[in-house]
């Protein structure tokens, strides 16, 4: 129950249905309402997808009414109670499955409790991982090596053991909430789900992470080594404008208006700035981003930008500053308040760069579009690891310079994490047409072409999807 997890799961449901499989998509009422535009389109298309709501146990878990998605949690203190509430959905799920047992269940990794329900009902089940395989491998190696226990300081650099190539991180960048005291049972449930699953589905593609996928398969153990399937990039599974503009949520602005604005710009001249569904910048940081964009505009005469600012709806002070900045930038900048049609923007020929928080959906969307990135990870989890993949391994990005999670920066007291000068320098490096920038852009375009081939008939992800369907049916027969 997070937009970054929900979006690729909907895409996966569409792909399975398009392959002729009857699909049931199970979530909760608030999440259904948030993807209602997508559901309406699916129902009009006659794809065989049935949507089912389970009542979310907010009252039983002591959560506010309607708190059914991570980005709706009003306080960090409620994150753990939210995760602990998820298994309370199990009786409803089992009741539904008992009435009409499916051939297979694919559950998001955050809903690891569903594995126990599937196991008790003797239903084949696959675990879906939304993050990159690079992140999954790093997490597995960190868990196996227990190296974090030997690292004293949060900011001491160390190499992740066992990777195909050296990657240096800090403890603060890779220590997750589940590593903290009090999370032991949640972590045990996750590991048990990984162990009981009949296979693993990952939103990536072989040509992007081939050596990583091979290493990950070996590290998962004999049972799962041959049952790890990459089926992405899921973001390019639906190409029409209406579907893309409602991917995740309905856009806060008219998609056609955005397209018309982009049509007026030269190829590779627009920097797209968007930090996902969870990141909220304080005013001090928004001002620094604005300063950075102004600096880049003064350095590159052809540069324009689109900046998505969710914070405007949450603060009158932010809206006042943003309105003034918007007037000043009206010729070369577009401000979108709220949700943006991200894939539509990224796939437009005018867009040459993407400033991102390094959530995997966003990274993979940029890769599929062949767009170079300015990387700015914010949260512990996969974001700092994804930055390493983009900048150091794939070499299609430039870091803005953020070294620690936003939670460790005094943002709420008004201090900006990254200064405008560093934002501007990173934008110029990405958008500059000099040799370094062009080489980076060439690599990005080559990856984009490989991504599109992977999803087409005969491509690696296309064939893997067929294998998943065949495996699920065969496993169901064997279990019966």
UniProtKB/TrEMBL annotation:
Keywords: Signal, Transferase. Residues 1-20 form the signal peptide. It comes from the Eukaryota. Residues 2-234 form the Glycosyltransferase N-terminal domain. GO terms for molecular function: UDP-glucosyltransferase activity. InterPro entries: Glyco_transf_N, UDP_glucos_trans. PANTHER family: GLYCOSYLTRANSFERASE (PTHR48047). Belongs to the UDP-glycosyltransferase family. This is UDP-glycosyltransferase 73C3. It comes from Platanthera zijinensis. The lineage of its organism: Eukaryota, Viridiplantae, Streptophyta, Embryophyta, Tracheophyta. The gene is UGT73C3.
């Amino acid at each position: 129950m997070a937009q970054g997890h929900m979006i690729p799961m909907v895409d996966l449901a569409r792909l399975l249905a398009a392959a002729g499989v009857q699909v049931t998509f199970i979530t909760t009422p608030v999440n259904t309402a948030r993807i209602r535009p997508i559901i309406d389109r699916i129902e009009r298309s006659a794809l065989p997808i049935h949507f089912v709501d389970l009542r979310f146990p907010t009252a039983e878990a002591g959560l506010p009414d309607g708190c059914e998605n991570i980005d709706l949690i009003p306080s960090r203190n409620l994150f753990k109670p939210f995760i602990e509430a998820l298994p309370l959905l199990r009786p409803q799920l089992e009741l539904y499955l008992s009435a009409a047992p499916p051939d297979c269940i694919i559950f998001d990794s955050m809903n690891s409790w569903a594995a126990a329900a599937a196991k008790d009902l003797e239903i084949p089940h696959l675990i879906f991982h939304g993050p990159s395989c690079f992140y999954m491998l790093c997490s597995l190696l960190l868990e196996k090596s227990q190296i974090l226990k030997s690292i004293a300081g949060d900011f001491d650099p160390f190499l992740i053991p066992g990777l195909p190539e050296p990657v240096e991180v800090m403890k603060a960048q890779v220590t997750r909430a589940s590593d903290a005291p009090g999370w032991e049972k949640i972590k045990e449930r996750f590991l048990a789900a990984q162990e009981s699953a009949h296979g693993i589905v990952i939103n990536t593609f072989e040509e992007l992470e081939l050596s990583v996928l091979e290493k990950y398969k070996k590290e998962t153990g004999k049972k799962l080594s041959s049952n790890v399937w990459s089926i992405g990039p899921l973001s390019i599974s639906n190409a029409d404008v209406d579907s893309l503009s409602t991917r995740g949520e309905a856009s806060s602005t008219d998609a056609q208006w955005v397209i018309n604005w982009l049509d007026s710009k030269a190829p590779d001249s627009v920097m797209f700035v968007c930090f996902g569904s969870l990141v909220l910048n304080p005013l001090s940081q928004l001002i620094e981003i604005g300063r950075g964009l102004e600096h880049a505009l003064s350095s590159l005469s052809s540069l324009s930008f689109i900046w998505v600012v969710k914070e405007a709806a949450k603060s009158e002070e932010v809206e006042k500053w943003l309105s003034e900045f918007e007037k000043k930038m009206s010729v070369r900048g577009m401000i979108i308040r709220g949700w943006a049609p991200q894939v539509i923007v990224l796939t437009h020929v005018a867009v040459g760069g993407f400033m991102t928080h390094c959530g995997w959906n966003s990274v993979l969307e940029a890769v599929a579009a062949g767009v170079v990135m300015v990387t700015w990870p914010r949260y512990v989890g996969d974001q700092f690891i994804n930055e390493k993949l983009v900048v150091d391994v794939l070499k299609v990005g430039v870091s803005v310079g953020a070294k620690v999670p936003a939670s460790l920066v005094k943002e709420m007291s008004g201090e900006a994490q990254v200064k405008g000068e560093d934002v501007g320098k990173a934008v110029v490096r990405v958008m500059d047409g000099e040799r370094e920038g062009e080489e980076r852009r060439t690599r990005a375009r080559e990856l984009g072409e490989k991504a599109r081939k992977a999803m087409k008939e005969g491509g690696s992800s296309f064939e893997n999807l067929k294998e998943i369907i065949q495996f699920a049916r065969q496993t169901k027969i064997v279990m019966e």
